[in-house]
Amino acid sequence: MDRFQSMTAFLAVVDTGGFASAARRLKVSPSVVTRAVSDLEERLGVRLLTRTTRFVRVTEAGTAYADSCRRILAELEEADEHAASAHAAPRGRLTLTAPVNFGRMHVLPVVHDYLGRFPEVDVNCWFVDRVVSLVDEGVDVAVRIGDLPDSSLQAIRVGSVRQVLCASPAYLASHGLPQRPQELAQHTTITASGLTSTPEWRFLEGDKALAVRLQPRLMSMTNEAAADCALAGQGITRLPLYQIAKPVQDGALRLVLEPFERPPLPIHVVHREGRHAAHRVRAFIDMAVDALRVAALKW
Hints:
This protein has helices spanning 3-16, 19-26, 30-44, 60-85, 100-117, 134-137, 169-175, 223-231, 241-250, 279-296; strands spanning 49-51, 56-58, 92-98, 121-127, 141-145, 154-161, 163-167, 189-192, 200-205, 208-213, 218-220, 236-240, 254-256, 265-271.
């Protein structure tokens, strides 16, 4: 019996609590399992299991070795699955999440291309403005905007996005162009509660952080409504640049107080797979990374 088979037999004894039960699980004779464990102990020069007529108990060395065996066998199985699927079409269900607006504007087009390319995959899109736990909620891939906390998740940076102040040329012609953040107190402001939970906007003046308290005349539940109000000349709002890139390019909106912007927020594609991701996950990640990096060049 080779080493991997011996490890499998040893883990079966640990998990089932006995040699006979391990043999039943593996569909071999108890003597085969006994021989496999004995071979391991002889090779390692340590006692892995304590045996009596009534029970089998794992030693301290056996507990540590069992953990190592589980990791090694899991990686081996991942490698086999990855190799077997390398030339097979992705199939199954992919679950992904992204912020509502970014998901609709920039992730959904990738999903459309992905579904067209891989007809045996179904996709479940969670476009929500909250941080979804990939592990706890069974999500395969997430697109995250903002700094990431330390975790065991894999992250691929695809770009960044500025948070900008903007207003229509008509509003600025009527009310003037603010030169410093403190001048916003004399202007009509529009806030989107999904983006700004407190009535203040933060800036950088040189190396110094600056917060300006707001008394917004209009508060919206969505970024889209805030953008529409700014386009209609109702005041100054703050939004992610990706959301208003076209009206800014067309001249329908002008950027305000650019020298005082805070650093752009990073955008990552995050996943929980190891080195050998499922083919359906790897295929989507590759497509999303390429598409979002191209899109980010326009912001």
